[in-house]
Design goal:
The protein is mainly alpha-helical. Helices cover about 70% and strands about 0% of the residues. The chain is built from 22 helices and 2 strands. It has a two-stranded antiparallel sheet. Helix 2 (about 10-55) packs across helix 19 and helix 3 (about 65-75) packs antiparallel against helix 10 (about 205-235). The longest helix is centred in the N-terminal third of the chain and has 47 residues, at about 10-55. The two termini are about 40 Å apart.
């Protein structure tokens, strides 16, 4: 269908087409989010194995230093201030106590009207022309003496009949119309580029709000990462991964208390999926050949604490921000790295003098390179992708994807280290993969709760089923609430 035919469609059909486009876009974003989360799982497997190698094989058992190094590495994103114009404009906006972005955007949009709005542009120009004669639009006249070169241009012949004045009158637009003066001298491409920057800024969180958000969440992120790193130092990666996967249960509880979207609402099917996933992860890690006798380990407590903080961090930031388009994620994590470096360096002295962790720099170049590689890929890239996948899907699905790290890490051992696992291992992998797919579908089809439907059918004889009109009324009331 051509754009001309589309313009002749009735309003109802146009709305239906827009609704279909919106649903198609939402579906594409959801599929992209699932793919992103799977990529993050593979990155985390490599990062966990690399951390385990640094702590145990390379004999550099420093969880706090590793966490601090990874956090500081986030500040690399702030180099973007040298290249990203949106960030540069936000600095100017903050330094000048807030430029009139919306006013400027309105003026730029008026100037950059396309051919379809040519009559509006001409109307605006005519209104502007007529307004120049009104007081206050043009400043009072000023008189300046002309230079000798300018006087010579008028001709210095003795036979001229007309003698020009050596003083010229200067008039200019008022300061409140400075934007129009600047835009009138810019090319069309420059105006369109400026319009894109202003539109992006208008949809993003302001620089000050992004900085405040990073200050609030840097503590949660650092302690959550520290818990996971300490777990890797005291247990195997498999045990650390199984306990980190419990963050799905905590996320379900927190998201039910503080829902950010309808996809985060509690239902029995999601609860059952999380429990099944956790059971599968437990079976997989229980059959780990490297696992020693079952003992209560301090590393287990570190992992559980990190899981709670991860769930809190993820639910609160999604509730605080809302849509992913509002948060400039590289800018946010850049300030997380900056404030992490400023706030947590005293921890080295506390841990050093309490003999919890002696402060020692990496002994050789190899350890430095491993730390940089782990921070660049396992933290810098993976955190951005994970948070992006969370925004594209839901906080529950993003956290539940952590459960896939355990079977993937064991699959890595099968392929690379030629480790043999029992049949219980494969029995544990199945519920993890199934629950991941089920939660993906439950998140996509909001309000679908097959477990609750089964209970309703079983115990339906004790309660009368509401008629369609009553059901529609209940749905409307729920939407209003």
């Amino acid at each position: 269908m051509s754009s001309r035919d589309h313009g002749k469609l009735p309003l109802k059909e146009k709305n239906l087409l827009e609704l279909k486009k919106c649903r198609r876009k939402k579906k594409q974003e959801f599929i992209l989010g699932v793919i992103v989360l799977l990529v993050v799982d593979f990155i985390w497997v490599g990062s966990a194995e690399l951390s385990d190698y640094i702590f145990k094989e390379n004999k550099y058992d420093k969880p706090y230093f590793t966490t601090y190094f990874k956090t500081v590495f986030f500040s690399v994103y702030l180099i973007g201030f040298c290249f990203v114009r949106n960030w540069q404009y936000q600095i100017k906006q903050s330094c000048t106590r807030g430029l009139p972005t919306k006013k400027m955007l309105k003026e730029v949009s008026r100037v950059s009207q396309g051919p379809q709005n040519e009559h509006l542009r001409q109307q605006a120009i005519s209104c502007e022309t007529s307004a120049t004669s009104t007081p206050g639009y043009i400043t009072p006249p000023k008189f300046e003496n002309m230079t000798d070169d300018e006087i010579s241009l008028n001709g210095d012949s003795q036979n001229k009949k007309v003698k020009f004045n050596d003083v010229r009158e200067v008039r200019s637009l008022a300061k409140r119309h400075a934007e129009a003066q600047i835009l009138s001298r810019m090319s069309h491409n420059s105006v369109e580029e400026l319009r894109g920057i202003l539109l992006s800024l208008d949809q993003k969180l302001p620089l000050k709000e992004t900085i405040k958000l990073s200050v609030y969440f840097v503590v949660l992120w650092v302690f959550a990462t520290l818990g996971y790193q300490a777990a890797l130092a005291n247990t195997t990666p498999s045990v650390a991964n199984i306990l980190s996967a419990t963050s799905g249960i905590f996320t379900l509880c927190f998201a039910a208390c503080f829902p950010s979207t309808s996809a985060d609402r509690f239902n029995f099917s999601k609860l059952l999926s999380v429990l099944v996933s956790f059971g599968g992860v437990f079976i997989v890690c229980w059959t780990d050949p490297a696992k020693k006798d079952s003992t209560v380990n301090i590393g287990d407590l570190y992992a559980i604490g990190g899981a709670i903080l991860y769930a809190t961090y993820l639910v609160l930031i999604r509730r605080k921000v809302g849509e992913d388009r509002k948060l400039d994620m590289p800018l946010f994590f850049g300030f997380v790295g900056l404030f992490g470096a400023l706030f947590f360096w005293p921890g080295f002295f506390i841990l050093h003098y309490t003999n919890v962790e002696r402060f020692e720099l990496p002994p050789d170049l190899k350890t430095w390179l491993l730390l940089i590689l782990n921070a660049a890929i396992g933290t810098l890239l993976s955190e951005i992708l994970w948070l992006w996948g969370c925004f594209l899907t839901s906080s529950l699905l993003a956290t539940l994807s952590l459960g896939l790290v355990a079977p993937l890490s064991m699959a890595f051992d099968i392929i690379v280290h030629k480790v043999q696992f029992s049949y219980l291992f494969f029995l544990g992998v199945a519920p993890i993969l199934i629950s991941f797919v089920v939660v993906s579908l439950l998140t996509h089809y909001e309000g679908y709760d097959p477990v609750m439907n089964c209970f309703s059918k079983i115990f339906g004889n004790t309660k009368q089923e509401p008629n369609p009109d009553e059901r529609e009324s209940l749905l409307e009331n729920d939407a209003v609430a």
